[in-house]
What does this fold into?
Amino acid sequence: MTSPTGLEPEPANRPPQIALTINVDSILSQVQGAIIVSSEVVDFMLDAMGKSDLSTKPNNPDAQYKFTSLPVTAEERRNNFENWLFSKALSDLMRGVRSALEQSYVVLQLVPGPLKMVSNSTPNALLAPQFEKAAKMKFGQLLESVNSRFNEPLAFADAFESLQQARNCFEHRNGIVGAVDAPSGGVLALRFPRAKIFYIKNGSEIELQGGHTVDDGSKSAEVQIYFKLDVRERRFGLGHRIVLSAADFNEIAFACNFFGTTLHSKILGVATQRR
It folds into this structure.
């Protein structure tokens, strides 16, 4: 027997179904939102500090309360400002990366489907245990779990750990590398992926820099330019201060953006394959 529309009627005992639409783009927005804000603030603040007289305390005529402090030099005030700035900026980047990874974990739990839920429940109640589980994982465990669903795993655990070490140093030790920051070899190593654009000259890779004149030693009017992902490593010895420039932070932000875009692409690929 068929219905008037010509379609088979739903079995009387078949449970109702709910279709959930997964917005995979929200994974990327978690990272890029943090990148945009933190990068703009770092660029603005470092530029403003370079143009300001930091030998005197900033004056706010509208402030209701005034706070006294010990005299500090321009260098000390700049160091204090940079400690606060980079601690906050690195925290925001790490939070964006972590949030994107947690959302990816939850999406991957949904993709195989279908999932069962009690009739008086809600989608939020269904997802809450997955988000809670992801939040309790360490970053390496979370990344490993997500990577288990990819043919080619993402490598970012070392970069995330080094960013965390740098953030902790800025936040708790005023940017001065302590023994807890450099447990082996007395060195804090800040490592992160970056884009390297270069050409070959006499068998060596010559990286392009601003204002650099490209000359590969040949007489050709055209020079072959190459691109690859490389690892930037900045090393800071025990007792030394972590010093980052706007260019350094730009490369760190690029590393986080590359992670986010690659993660987004892989999650989208898994979701598409399961349709």
Summary: Residues 74-110 form the longest helix (37 residues). The chain has a mean pLDDT of 85.
